[in-house]
C-alpha cells in the first residue's frame, strides 16, 4: 500500500497523477485509507493543515502523486424564487454553524431534516440530490496557519 504523506501546493505540467474522489468527511481527516478507481489501496498520513479541497494534490515520499476530487454524496439542495430568498436561507443556515456550500443558484448542506424543515418554512424548495460537497471554509480559515488568533477572533469561536 502506498502511503501519501505530503500536501503539494503545485505540480509540474509534466507530472503524472491518479485521481481519487473522496467525500467531504474523509477530506477533513489527515489520516485515512481509500481505494483508487483502479482498486489500489492507499493510505494517507498528512500534516494537519486543513481539509483537502477538490483539486488538491498529495504525494508519497517516492514522488507518486494523487489529485483529490470531491466525490458526489447525498446532500440537501436549497433553491429559491429570488436571490434575496436564497440569501435569507444562507443567513439562517449559517447561524446554525453547519458546513454550507454556496453557489449562485443553490445552497447545499448535509442531510438534516430539522434544517430542511426550517428552510422549507421560509418558503424555499429543499431537494435531496447527489452532488460533490465543497462547503465554505470560513472567514479565518485561509489565514489561520499564518497568524495566531487575536482576542477579537477568539470571541467569535463558539466551540461548535
TrEMBL record:
Domain UreE urease accessory N-terminal: 2-66
Domain of life: Bacteria
Keywords: Chaperone, Cytoplasm, Nickel
Function: Involved in urease metallocenter assembly. Binds nickel. Probably functions as a nickel donor during metallocenter assembly.
UniProt xrefs under HAMAP family: UreE
Family according to the record: Belongs to the UreE family.
Protein name in the entry: Urease accessory protein UreE
Amino acid at each position: 500500500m502506498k502511503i501519501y504523506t505530503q500536501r503539494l501546493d503545485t505540480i509540474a505540467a509534466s507530472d503524472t497523477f491518479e485521481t481519487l474522489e473522496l467525500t467531504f468527511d474523509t477530506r477533513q481527516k489527515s489520516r485515512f485509507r481509500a481505494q483508487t478507481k483502479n482498486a489500489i489501496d492507499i493510505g494517507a498520513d498528512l500534516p494537519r493543515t486543513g481539509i483537502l479541497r477538490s483539486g488538491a494534490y498529495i504525494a508519497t515520499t517516492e514522488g507518486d502523486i494523487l489529485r483529490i476530487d470531491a466525490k458526489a454524496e447525498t446532500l440537501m439542495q436549497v433553491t429559491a424564487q429570488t436571490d434575496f430568498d436564497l440569501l435569507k436561507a444562507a443567513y439562517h443556515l449559517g447561524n446554525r454553524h453547519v458546513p454550507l456550500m454556496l453557489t449562485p443558484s443553490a445552497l447545499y448542506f448535509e442531510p438534516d431534516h430539522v434544517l430542511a424543515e426550517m428552510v422549507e418554512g421560509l418558503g424555499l424548495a429543499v431537494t435531496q440530490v447527489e452532488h460533490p460537497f465543497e462547503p465554505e471554509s470560513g472567514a479565518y480559515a485561509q489565514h489561520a496557519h499564518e497568524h495566531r488568533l487575536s482576542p477579537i477572533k477568539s470571541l467569535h469561536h463558539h466551540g461548535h
